[in-house]
Automatic annotation (TrEMBL):
InterPro entries: Solute-binding_3/MltF_N. This is Transporter substrate-binding domain-containing protein. Residues 38-237 form the Solute-binding protein family 3/N-terminal domain. It comes from Oceanospirillum sediminis. It comes from the Bacteria. PANTHER family: PERIPLASMIC SUBSTRATE BINDING PROTEIN FAMILY 3, SOLUTE-BINDING PROTEIN FAMILY 3_N-TERMINAL DOMAIN-CONTAINING PROTEIN. Pfam families: SBP_bac_3.
Amino acid sequence: MIIEKSKLWLTGLLSGYLLLAGMPSYGLDRVRLATQLWPPYQTLDDGVMGGIALERVQCTFRRMQQPYELNMMRWDKAQLLVETGKMDGFFAGSKNSARARYATMSEAVISEDLSWYFNPGVNLNANDESSKYKARFGAKFNTSKWLFLKKNGYNVIKKPRDAEALLKMLWQGDIDVALEYELVFEHYMKQSGIPTDYFRRVPIRTQDLNVHFSKNFLKENPGFLDRFNQALRRCKQG
């Protein structure tokens, strides 16, 4: 029988454990993954973890009969703990070169539309080279999206800590254009009572969000990623 339990505490950041007890799969005692609070992908309500991406990861481990541990924390710390070998992986995140140095991605846990959100009255093409300097752009600080803006020369003037702060900046006119995932931004728009069609939305691309497993962890557990991906496919099929 599979048993789940959760434990939460505050230590300057929010952390959480969710364990799956059962017969270890292929000799693995427990897989330790880090994640962030990022509705609607990863949520925490009354001490219970949930969300679209988190529940799909849970489903995958259940299908594998693999014990696991999920830890919720700041996104920068989640990645650092994997890079330094203190966690086996983190999710859900997109592909970038910094992560690829120390981690290997699973297949997509979810795929989501990444879009520009324009303040009413802002009429420009975000892909026009001159627009990079005319408008004020924003994305969640120290994410792939924020780094993309900085690397490509966009006029980035703010460092919002999360998507909720990013939305507030766009709503108040502190920035002209926000770069965010559709489900995430619309979650906070609904929560704030802002009509979902208030901002002009221009889709950029569909972005895969994955589990990033430590290369050292995968080296020590050959075949694990293939088994994980096979189980993940079954979970996505329903």
